[in-house]
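User: For a benchmark we're assembling, each entry needs the component sequences followed by a predicted structure for the full assembly. Here are entry 17's components. Please fill in the structure.
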Amino acid sequence: MTTETHLDDLAIKTEALSRIYKIRGAKKGEMRERVALEDINLSIPRGELFGLLGPNGAGKTTLIKILTTLLSPTRGRAWVAGFDVVRESDKVRPRINMVSGGETSGYGLLTVRENLWMFAQFYGIPSRQAHQRIQTLLEMIGLADRANTKSSDLSTGLRQKMNIVRGFMTDPEVLFLDEPTLGLDVQAAREVRAFIRRWMDENPSRTILLTTHYMQEAEELCDRVAIIHEGRILACDTPDHLKQEVQHEAIFQLLVETEQPLNSLALENLPGVLRLHHQWMNGGLQLEISLAEEGVLPLVIGELERQQAHLRSLQKRQPSLEDVFVQLVGLRMEEVERERGNGYHPNTQE
Amino acid sequence: MLRSPAFRSFRMAAWLGWQIESNWTDPFLFAIYSIIKPLAAAGILVVMYRVVTQQAFDTPMFAYLYLGNAFYQYVSAVTTGVSWAVIDDREHYRTLKYIYVAPLNIPLYLFGRGVARFLTTSFAVLIIILFGVGFLKMPLALSTIQWPLLIVSLVLGTLMLGLVGLILAGITLLTARHSYYIGDAVAGALFLFTGAIFPLEVLPAYLRPIGYALPITYWLELMRRALVGRVAQAFPTFSALSDGQLLALLALMTLALGIISLVVFRWCERLARERGLIDYTSNY
Ligand SMILES: Nc1ncnc2c1ncn2[C@@H]1O[C@H](COP(=O)(O)OP(=O)(O)OP(=O)(O)O)[C@@H](O)[C@H]1O
Ligand SMILES: [Mg+2]
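Assistant: Structure for entry 17:
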């Protein structure tokens, strides 16, 4: 097969990878199918920090579970570090590690150091070397002073940091991070991102696949980003290239004061207005508006005046991955998540 | 060898199991839990024996049932010790997926997790037997104990129980939250069929084959023979078989069980991977 030839340079490769979950339907005995991943084709070279960006339920965790040998694919194949994740899973496992955010895992009765040391032993790392690595990583992530604390006495955020060290300490060829900053406060999330970046910079052959639903995180950290939605990859490129797709648009942020509700439809229907998003913010109404070109702006301002909305501030904004997502999906990521929260499952089939 | 995945899986799991098992803030409570409780269970049996048979404690029948009951402690302890680790790691510590991602030998990891329970149970069994000898005048003399037979039978029996535990672990992997007490349930269900407290001849003839099919029955008989040979041989069930023949039967059954349990466990693992159950938690 042609794929085997350059598999060596690839940390991760998938071919038409699909996963369907069987779930119980509303009626008794009825089984329904939910497509979590559909025809995923990815090639991630060694040395890359690759991001999977997508809203809740996009299929990010499902993909990570398949690549880490925890879940079987329904169709298609996948290779990690050159080995098939189904047929050669015992060759994959020594070469990888995985961390999921937003959960408190670990043996609470053991100290931070004991937890980590034990997992190092699971990977066959000699004890002394393990202790050294653990100490270095704990210092890097800012947990060294709690090394001898029972992990049950740690806050959720610190436990997550411990879990992150557990993933990095085995120095895997390919590391999977499933929403590593989920649930962390701003400061801790920043520290974790810096930690991830530093670890990647230390050794150019290291590879990370990271999932996130924070646009900014993907933009800031990742060499390449795949935008995933409803089990499909909609776009995959460097953040800069992705943004170039929407670069020709002019995006403005306006803060307006208005007595009566704004007729946003009238604004959206103006020629040259591509998208409009509005939300209330400390007293005013914040509008975010994408225009086909800057010249459309006077039209918008004219319409606002006609509706007796007073402009308080106006700012041109650089396009972000959020804009890319909106262009691809037609909704903002938070809107997708809100709809999911209301029981909207577009990818459920009878 | 010391760094081989098989050995480190077992060794580290045994270490972890011991940390968990001995993690009682109060050593006194730990003693109550692991010694007084089995001792009390033996006490109930003693009283029942006295009330039902009106016989003295130095009769062969008493030694038969007292020792059978004592060693039966291992059945639920070892099978639960091995299978419980699946629930504990998955539901409580939420580490099962990390264990499964690590380059470990999972069956040996689970065996390792059972070691601590084996040790605490051994201690309890020893106390129960000493109690029987000291206070109830059970006929047991150090000089007549067949040590090699005792040790070989105990090792083989523990392995056999561990393999039963592995089957239960596989079932636990698939049944999510419903199998908390699967080890105790199985031990309880088999108790009367294994000749633990009465010879198989007491059972109706159509139930006896169950007893003959269970390796536990042979193992209990071997443990009794190793400790009180003469007394045990007085009972009809296996009187036609020599110690060596019994041991060979137990070894063969353990071997067969080993193959079956590995196949069953691997099959359960495959299903668990297909259904996404390895990191399933009840309050998902
Ligand atoms: N065990 C399961 N059984 C049935 N359906 C599942 C199971 N796990 C996930 N799903 C469904 O598969 C889809 C993808 O889920 P997945 O967890 O991979 O998404 P995600 O991108 O990781 O989302 P999140 O941001 O919420 O973690 C969702 O529709 C989800 O409801
Ligand atoms: Mg997820």
